[in-house]
């Protein structure tokens, strides 16, 4: 089954609900997005303040252009909006997709929320869309994000050298590529991650 950018997908379990990102979510996410630390490794228009509206607009427009499918993350435990994530770079012919642009407010990090989100997204990608691989990536200096991806079963696959400007303003930095394959999901990652939710 292919990804239908016009369809409303809601991914949900007992802990979290992922809803298609809409312009109406700007107000409920604005307070969380003010944390400057969130945007340290992000490229593009956002700093959590005046550019945040542009960030949401760009994400919503990308869905209209059938390039990306962004979600807002609702934490059922605290009954509050926690951040955003999205699918992108969907290649129907190659049967692959990427997952990224993920951010959460600091009070949601380390709470198990991310594992629940990733589980739902991997489950949707592998079991509903039937893709062969889900790709992820991060700035090489973003150790916390890389550790989080590996903790949900992602395997390091390589490095794209000098892809990003250094966050320190001097030189360049690498990107680390990670991924999960359908057979890896079916042969153990799904069960291991589900048991940890």
Radius of gyration computed on alpha carbons: 16 Å
Spell out the helices and strands N to C. Answer: EEHHEEEHEHEEH
Helix content: 25-40%
Distance between the termini: 27 Å
**CATH topology, what is it called?**
Aminopeptidase
| Main β sheet profile | 8 strands, mixed
What layout of secondary structure does this protein have?
Elements (H helix, E strand, L loop, with lengths): L10 E2 L3 E5 L4 H6 L21 H13 L3 E8 L4 E12 L4 E9 L8 H17 L3 E7 L3 H9 L3 E11 L6 E10 H14 L2
Parallel strand pairs: 5-6
Antiparallel strand pairs: 1-2, 2-3, 3-4, 4-5, 6-8, 7-8
Helix pairs in contact: 3-5
Structure description:
This protein has helices at residues 25-30, 52-64, 113-129, 143-151, 182-195; strands spanning 11-12, 16-20, 68-75, 80-91, 96-104, 133-139, 155-165, 172-181. By secondary structure, it is of the alpha+beta class. The protein has a single domain, classed as Aminopeptidase. An eight-stranded mixed β-sheet has the order 1-2-3-4-5-6-8-7, with helices on both faces. It is globular, with a radius of gyration of 16 Å.
In brief:
The chain is α+β, with helices and mostly antiparallel strands. The protein contains five helices and eight strands.
């Amino acid at each position: 089954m292919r990804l239908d950018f016009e369809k409303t997908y809601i991914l949900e379990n007992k802990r979290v609900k992922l809803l298609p990102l809409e312009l109406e979510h700007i107000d409920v996410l604005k307070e969380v997005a003010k944390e400057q630390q969130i945007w340290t490794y992000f490229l593009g228009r956002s700093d959590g303040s005046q550019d945040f509206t542009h960030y949401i607009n760009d994400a919503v427009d990308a869905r209209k252009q059938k390039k990306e499918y962004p979600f807002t993350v609702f934490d059922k435990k605290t009954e509050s909006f926690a951040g955003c994530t999205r699918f992108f770079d969907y290649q129907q012919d190659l049967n692959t997709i990427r997952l990224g642009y993920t951010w959460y407010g600091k009070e949601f990090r380390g709470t198990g929320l991310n594992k629940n989100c990733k589980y739902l997204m991997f489950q949707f990608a592998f079991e509903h869309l039937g893709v062969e691989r889900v790709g992820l990536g991060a700035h090489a200096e973003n150790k916390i994000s890389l550790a989080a991806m590996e903790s949900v079963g992602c395997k390091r696959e390589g490095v794209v050298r000098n892809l990003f400007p250094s966050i320190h303003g001097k030189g360049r930095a690498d990107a680390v590529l990670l991924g999960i394959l359908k057979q890896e999901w079916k042969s153990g990652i799904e069960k291991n991650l589900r048991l940890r939710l």
